[in-house]
Amino acid sequence: MPQHWSTEEVEAIVADHLQMLTLELAGQTYSKTEHRRRLQAKLNNRSDGSIEFKHCNISAVLIRLGIPYIRGYQPRSNYQAMLAEVVTDQLKRRSMLDQAALAAVQQPAVTPLGADFAHTLTQAPVRQLRVAEAQPEWQWNKPAIKRDYLEREAQNQSLGLAGEEFVLQFEHWRLNALGQSTLADRVEHVAQSQGDGLGFDVLSFEPDGRERFIEVKTTAFGKDTPFFVSKNELTFSRTAAQQFHLYRLFEFRKQPRLFDLAGEVSDHCLLDPVSYRASFS
């Protein structure tokens, strides 16, 4: 049986991971192979696979804290409670990571032209239960952090608008590819033409003419990045389940791709309440 990671090993790999994340968010190149080679000297004969898996565990912790994860290290949620503690402790001392992350999520976005829509659609992630080796209550009581960068990105109106315009292009392409050019011409950006309170952003169509209601959620980060939905959007996804589609655009600044969540959002995702409306009557 493999030995548990020691505190010293966990601290070493977390420090290396956060350094790579800072470089990635700042748009600077780096070599994962070179980082792993230097890191192995500080570890107890860990295999490449073991190191890779631990990096994926760190991604899962970062996602729970509202922080983007490194491209290629897909989040794996079965991690040590100690790992979460080390990550949160080291984040407090990473002012450069804070600056790079904040700049990345607030950066304006432009709708790309000439996208290869034939390779844009991909499979959605599979919903998984979150499990920790110990102290599972950590999962539900998020430690204090400086800011939720993913929430900041969700408020980036430039990125949101660029994503919606990209989906307009995609829907025109999809319907034209199905031989439905008349329907393609009727695709409408209703969030702009009618307002953003409808519960969806783009009105499109099925090949038989039935309406397709599309809500667009856009991120510059990876496929597993969480997104935010309003109460209105959740309600609409339930009442119009036969026609509702949530298009999740990801890696938008690199090579935009999307997956389609059709029907009720709750059928596809774990939903965590993150805010409440406080009133006096």
Report on this structure.
This protein has a 4-stranded mixed beta sheet with strand order 1-2-3-4. The radius of gyration is 21 Å and the shape is elongated. It is an alpha+beta fold. Helices cover 41% and strands 9% of the residues. The protein contains 11 helices and 4 strands; from the N terminus they run H-H-H-H-H-H-H-H-H-H-E-E-H-E-E.
List keywords for this structure.
elongated; 281 residues; alpha+beta; Trna Endonuclease, Chain: A, domain 1
Please give the domain count: 2
Reading off the top of the CATH hierarchy, the class of the largest domain is best stated as Alpha Beta
Radius of gyration equals 21 Å
Helix content: 40-55%
Give the beta-strand count.
Answer: 4
Tally the helices.
Answer: 11
* Secondary-structure content class: alpha+beta
The low-confidence parts are 131-138
Largest sheet: 4 strands, mixed
Distance between the termini: 59 Å
- Using the alpha-carbon principal axes, give the shape: elongated
CATH architecture of the largest domain: 3-Layer(aba) Sandwich
CATH topology of the largest domain: Trna Endonuclease, Chain: A, domain 1
